[in-house]
Amino acid sequence: MEEGGTTTGGRPHLPHLRGLDGVRAFSVLGVIAFHNGLSSVPGGFYGVDAFFVLSGFLITTLLVTEFGTRGRINLGRFWAGRARRLLPALFLVVIAIGVVLLAAPSVLATPHVIGDAISTIFYASNWYSIHNGVSYFSTATHPSPLLHTWSLAIEEQFYLLWPLIVLAVLSLGTRRKGRRARSPLNRDGQRARTVRVLGGGHLMMFPQGSEHDAAWTRRRRLHLLFALAAFGALASSLLMAHLAPNGYTTRAYYGTDTRAQALLVGAAIAIGVTLWKPTGAGANGTASAPSAASAAASGSWAPWFQRLCAVLGVIGIAGSAVLWTTVNEASSFAFSGGFLLASLAAGLVVLGAVVAPWGLAVRLLEIPPLPALGRISYGVYLWYWPVLLVMSGSRVHLSVYPLFLCRAGVTIAIATASAFLIEIPIRRGALGQWRARVAGPVAAGVAIGLVVISTLVPVEAASIPGSAVSGDVNNSKPNGASTFSALSPPVPTTTTTTVPGTPASSTPSTLVPPPPTGQPIKVLLLGDSMAGSLGVGLAQYESNSNVQIVNEGIPGCSLAMGQEIKVLFYTLPPGPPCSGTDPNAIVNQWQKWVNAYNPDVVIYVARGETFDTEVKNKWTNLGEADYNQYVADRYSAAIKVLGSRGATVVLLTTPYYDSGTSPSGVIWPEDATSRVTTDNQIIRTVAKSATIEDGHQVYVFDLNTVVDPNNAYAANLDSVPLRCGDGVHFTPPGGVFVGLQLLPDVAQLGLAHRTASPSGAWPGHLPPSTPTWYPKLPCG
To answer: In this predicted model, which residue has the larger pLDDT, 225 or 461?
Structure first.
């Protein structure tokens, strides 16, 4: 991802180093394979860290070489070089995304694209992601086509700060007023002696009390800089382990400070190579031009050291292969030393390529077409993610590996065209100095402008045609069937559910009485964002059924969530009040609400039970016996709390979901119909047990049958848009549609408690019926 071995205007550049293009190629292929869902490369995300190591090595070598050659670092020219190298391709990608969003908004639909584009242009996308978090409701929508630019932001932040640190450290003690350069003799004329060090270089030793010359001072500063890089990498790794003790967290994954470990490992190797440079390559402490790396290429390292580095390079490749094929991003090991080990393994490969360019590791990395792919790896990395989103499994009907090859082929073709038509000509000065200064801001403005304009175009996926439901309550049951058991007083003491399949022409249920009059029935709606989204529409219909709803649906928090959950591309902790360390936190919060509100009916609905969940440091899901029992126990505990003041508890069955396909072209695990079926079986079993054995009034409302009458996901019914564009949440008309079936029965169920325990209006300030996060969903 860095320059080759040419020079411009006297600026020192690295010579071509064999094998490093192969490192780039393997890195970008690992990242693409990981995001394409190839099960053989679960740790392909470590490819980003290999990029970081290589970038840290190359940039630090350039900086140290320039300082050793010229006694200073031209920061302006350095940053201008970075801009010429990185900005053209980045601007092109953002412009292309803006054009696609403008021409076909449903292809790359995403709710936060403006913020994504601005943070990308200004290289702050990693902190933008941390600031926004990766909450349940945002990850259940279309992922941003600029999601992957977080790593570019980290690199650019490193390019901004690290040269300042290098310059500050290397300048210490070299610019004292009136100081003269001295020969390597002390005041008594004693000559310094040299000591051979690792790799064949020499370290000068002065008698005690001698004054060191400027070159010796710079060498001491290199030792200080090396220690700073090495201990900085270790500190970064420790910070990551502290922030993510159980695996993935947004802060640990995207933080510049936590991911700096890889960049600093590369920097430490670059400084070490300079300190250990061979005899004749500036052993007096200066980094002779062009660099120590060129001396390595000439074979002037000590033979035993070259052989050692050749072996270390092979070990680095083997270690990387093991990590990339065995460790996944949800592993606690990945964040507790795994990233540092991956960086060290990549660093060994780089060291082997620099010191032993004839070694086996380099020969493996030079196998065609790896070097060619490595030379365009920056563009490949930029384009692979938007291409992956456009060529989704639902659009390109191929199995996993053919789909991966097709995506890779299209990505490489676009990156090649970008490199030879735009990036390389600009890097070689095609625009000229003043044109380049104008072109950058103009390109950034065009990119952001296109994205802003594209947001004014409605997204097809989020705008399903239809109108709100209206009509008589008693004629609103789908297929004419009641979704509860008969509700004529007295209230039954068993829990039953609708039997699907009632003909559409059958007479509407006559068992549901008209809504009660007088004081409204108080209904507390609980669950995750599924409950919150359903409550928006229910609130629009509540007055028709003489009920009053308080919507306490909270994104990313359901009763069965454990330490971590997997949602689409992400692994993240549950949101508050759920806690990864206290499984009773959510139940305790519910108890507070039940005590404060004294509801007549409590409704629970959530999607969270269908996610892959980490429970007691083990990843599990519905369908596994232990987790099925865990979920059942959680439902039982919740019912005891929700019904603790006499309220009737209504559990809604889980509907089907359609949040798209994974990069590998298969449905997301949490959308599997088998998980929905298992969850609903558990709900019915627990509800029946709680009613008969514990004496609670528990009912099951068959939401799945109401919104998915054909036993399959339905985005709309009878021209009513039920579900949002994410294939998960409910639209306001969808909530009204469900309310027509649900609320009259709920009003009847709450009568007994309202009569026995009158409590007036809800106490205190109620949450809004439309939660603040709901407008962020693609719900029209």
So the answer is: 225
Q: For residue 274, count other CB atoms closer than 10 A to its CB.
A: 25
DSSP string for residues in 645-692: TSPEEEEEPP------B-TTSSBPGGG-HHHHHHHHHHHHHHHHHHHH
Q: Is residue 16 classed exposed, middle or buried when 0-12, 13-18 and 19+ CB atoms within 10 A define those classes?
A: middle
- Pick from 413-417, 545-549, 552-556, 630-634: least confident: 545-549
The greatest distance separating any two alpha carbons of the chain, rounded to the nearest whole angstrom, comes to 114
Helix (H, G, I), strand (E, B) or coil at 613: strand
pLDDT at 55: 94
Q: Which among 10, 15, 16 is positioned nearest to 69, based on CA atoms?
A: 10
Q: Any alpha helices (H) in 75-188, and if so which ranges?
A: 75-103, 113-121, 125-132, 136-139, 150-171
Q: Is 155 exposed, middle or buried (0-12, 13-18, 19+ CB in 10 A)?
A: buried
User: Does residue 487 contact residue 753 with C-beta atoms inside 8 Å?
Assistant: no
How are beta strands 618-620 and 612-615 bridged, if at all? Answer: antiparallel
- Residue 650's DSSP bridge partners are 603, 699
* Four-point Cα dihedral 712, 716, 717, 721, nearest 10: 150
Residues 6+ apart with CB under 8 A from 394: 660, 661, 665
For residue 483, what are the contacts with CB-CB under 8 A and spacing of at least 6?
477, 497, 498, 701, 702, 703, 705, 706, 741, 742, 745
What would the DSSP string read from start to end of 343-405? HHHHHHHHHHHHH-TTSHHHHHHTSTTHHHHHHTHHHHHHHHHHHHHHT-TTTS---HHHHHH
pLDDT: which is higher, 660 or 343: 343
Q: What three-state secondary structure class fits 521?
A: strand
Q: Is 752 helix (H, G, I), strand (E, B) or coil?
A: helix
Average pLDDT, the chain: 78
- Provide the residue type at 332 as one letter: S
- CA distance linking residue 298 with residue 742, whole number of Å: 80
> To the nearest 5 percent, what fractions of the chain are helix, strand and coil?
55, 10, 40
Q: Helix, strand, or coil here: 77?
A: helix
Q: Quick one: average pLDDT of 651-672?
A: 86
In this predicted model, what pLDDT tens digit does every residue of 27-68 receive, in sequence order? Answer: 999 999 888 877 788 888 999 999 999 999 999 999 998 888
Question: What whole-number distance in Å separates Cα of residue 608 and Cα of residue 596?
Answer: 25
Is it the case that residue 1 has pLDDT exceeding 80?
no
Closest Cα to residue 136, out of 773, 775, 778? 773
Phi, psi of 74 (to 5 degrees): -80, 95
The CA dihedral of 314, 320, 321, 327, to the nearest 10 degrees, is 160
